Amino acid sequence: MSGPKEELGEQRDSTKKKKKKKKKTESGKKRREKQQEEEGVKGGGGGEEEEEEEGEKQQVEEEEVHSSDCIVLRGIFKLGKKSHDVLLTRTRLTWTPITPEMPTGEACVLQPGVMPLQDVFAVKVKRRRAAGQESGGPVLGVTLFCSRQRGRRLEEDTLHLHNASAEHTYTWYNTLKELVSGFSSRPKCLKVFINPSSHKKEAVHIYREHVAPLFKMADVSTDITVTEKKGHALSVMKECKLDEFDGVVCVGGDGSVAEVCHALVLRAQLDADSPEKPVKPVLPLGIIPAGSTNVVSCSVHGVRDPVTAALHIILGHQQQVDMCSFSSLGQLVCFGFSAMFGFGGQSLARAEKKRWMPSSQRREYALVKTLARLKPEYCHLSFIPVTKTTRDLFGHHSEDEDLDQDPGSVDAEGEGTWTTIKGLYLNISVMSIPCLSPHAPRGLAPNTSLANGSASLIAVGNTSRSEFIKHLKRYSSSSGQFSFSFVETHTVTAVRIRPRSQRSWSEEESEGEEGDSKTTPIIQTEGATFPWNIDGELVEIANEVLIRVHPRLITLYGEDMDEAESTVSCSCI
Ligand SMILES: Nc1ncnc2c1ncn2[C@@H]1O[C@H](COP(=O)(O)OP(=O)(O)OP(=O)(O)O)[C@@H](O)[C@H]1O
User: Fold this and answer.
1) Tens of pLDDT along 73-132?
2) For ligand 1, is residue 10 a contact (CB within 6 Å)?
3) Predicted confidence (pLDDT) at residue 517 exceeds the cutoff of 60
4) What's a single GO MF annotation on this record (predicted)?
5) What kind of fold does domain 4-102+109-129+137-180 have according to CATH?
6) Selecting from 2.60.200.40, 1.10.3720.10, 3.40.50.10420, 3.30.1460.10, what CATH number does the domain 331-551 have?
7) Cα 137-141-142 angle, rounded to 5 deg
8) ipTM score here?
9) What is the whole-number distance in angstroms between the Cα of residue 189 and the centre of ligand 1?
10) Which residue in 85, 341, 387, 451 has a CA-CA distance of 20 to 30 Å to 335?
């Protein structure tokens, strides 16, 4: 095993070798500057020899030394049972097995192992300990905890570098720790909200079992609020000292996520003294999926997996995401990512009336019942398209509609021209994110992306029940859900939906119901109301609803995913 002296010696040697080799591989000024910057933290190639050298020649040589990812440490460790030559640069760790020379003199081709430091989230000193012993024990080496990608999932992995020299181990441990803690996007302190009532009431357990140990390992401290009721997260967010935190985490489903996002934007508005205009929150939001619907989480993780979500947070993967504001009669209802009016809203309203049922059963019941009572709403649908020419993605228009331009509809701020369609609609969706889920792997709105500054408007006109079911079923397959004459899609920056029916949906509904409703809608407004599904939450709104897209309003921990891991789809249709 190599000791620290040996290590430094090897380091210098490697630097000399590098100097010769790098002359040929030198490239552009930019790259040199970057590497010179990198050298600032740990004198990678530095040493007495270099310090003594002067003049232009020395400068050129120094630049050459730093021209590639220069070596910070070099030493010998055992990985498994074999000794390896291990190199540490500022960006990665590589190891090559050391094998004795073949008697025939043949060179043995060895594949080095590589671990990018951007995937490493914790470094620990490994010690030999007896059962029950909590501290001390002889040093065995360094252990690196890292994230490994498997499909869309991130998994925890470890790499053990064995060397019994305590000095050698601590040199590596300290250097690795310094490099790993240098990633500025990684959070050190998080405000965590857990909704204990989400889905099967497993959020606290999910957090304790899968997330808290990873945060602890990565030295991320937390301040936890287990919410007691709807609106609790919002009231805490209004009051708490945010500058103590690097990020906020929500453990729950889409309803909880929407509440925390809404709270983050409102708090940013409050701090910026901007009562009208939405303000981008400073803190990113991490989402640990624990709800019955998790489309926001799935859209930035590609999978419903708390470990993947926690690793995205720990590693500081950040993604800007568009949001919508929903308002009615000039009053803000909420900020969110997606809304459904018609079938989507009605089916959620029916599900909410059967709260006592298990959530999947409740959803299937509501879906089937709403399909059985399928009824279109007559609406005025106005929108501002992203491109000037409003067109159906597949060149079709519903026969029930007449398309016309709103006279004098250019907005006062010059944001674009409103187009109005009037007709009968079975469902209208507005989604600023793709809304990926295991049931719809390419998303409910595959034509939009997380940060394109627009939303997807999907208007499903009147049609037969069987055709509507065909349309719904295609969400679970890869494509074709919009290739129906009664489906129209637009890329928009704002939408206004004005239901024209004189009777509210709930009035009609109550006539045919068994009267088993024990719950009231989550948000209620005065007068005749229509059910909306906003991020999986039932919101009853009278009159017109105005939806505006706010580009990149929020930052979420995660990445831009084009497809989610799929599971078996709902069997009820
Ligand atoms: N302790 C609590 N008791 C009841 N509701 C709560 C509590 N804490 C938060 N909430 C509210 O519960 C709602 C639903 O939460 P969430 O979306 O996480 O769960 P879900 O299982 O996906 O949803 P749902 O129960 O609607 O299927 C949110 O609006 C949230 O504000």
Assistant:
1) 999 999 988 899 999 999 999 999 987 776 676 666 667 899 999 999 999 999 998 888
2) no
3) no
4) lipid kinase activity
5) PH-domain like (2.30.29)
6) 2.60.200.40
7) 115
8) 0.96
9) 25
10) 387
Question: Distances in Å between the alpha carbon of 427 and those of 72, 462, 512, 531, 540?
Answer: 60, 9, 21, 12, 16
Judge whether residue 344 has pLDDT over 90.
yes
Cα 252 to ligand 1 centre (Å): 7
15/53 Cα distance (integer angstroms): 15
CB 141 near ligand 1, within 6 Å: no
For 137-177, the pLDDT digits (tens) are: 899 999 999 999 999 999 999 999 999 999 999 999 999 99
How high is the pLDDT of residue 512?
53
CB 199 near ligand 1, within 6 Å: yes
Q: How many residues does the chain have?
A: 573
Residue 392 has pLDDT above 60, yes or no: no
Mutating to test ligand 1, I would choose from 195, 285, 354 the residue with most ligand atoms within 8 A of its C-beta, which is 195
CATH 3.40.50.10330 domain residues, the chain: 189-316
CATH 2.60.200.40 in the chain: give the residue spans: 331-551
Q: How far is the CA of 505 from the centre of ligand 1 (A)?
A: 24
13 has a pLDDT exceeding 50:
no
* H or E element at residue 537: strand 537-541
Q: Is 359 touching ligand 1 by the criterion CB < 6 Å?
A: yes
Work out which ligand 1 atom sits closest to the CA atom of 259. 31
Rounded CA Rg of the chain: 29
Q: Where in the chain is the domain with CATH 2.30.29.30?
A: 4-102+109-129+137-180
**Ligand 1 neighbourhood includes 442 CB (under 6 angstroms):** no
171, 42 contact by CB (below 8 A): no
Q: How far apart are CA 319 and CA 303, in angstroms?
A: 16
Tokens of 488: 């129209």
Reported as a single tens digit per residue, the pLDDT across 256-308 is 999 999 999 999 999 999 998 999 999 999 999 999 889 999 999 999 999 99
Ligand 1 neighbour 195 (Cβ under 6 A): yes
Q: With a 6 A CB cut-off, is 7 part of the ligand 1 pocket?
A: no
221-243, pLDDT tens digit by residue? Answer: 999 999 999 999 999 999 999 99
Q: Hey, which residues does 537 pair with through a beta bridge? A: 534
- Under 8 Å between Cβ of 93 and 112: no
Identify the pLDDT of residue 360: 78
Q: Ligand 1 centroid vs 185 CA: distance in angstroms?
A: 29
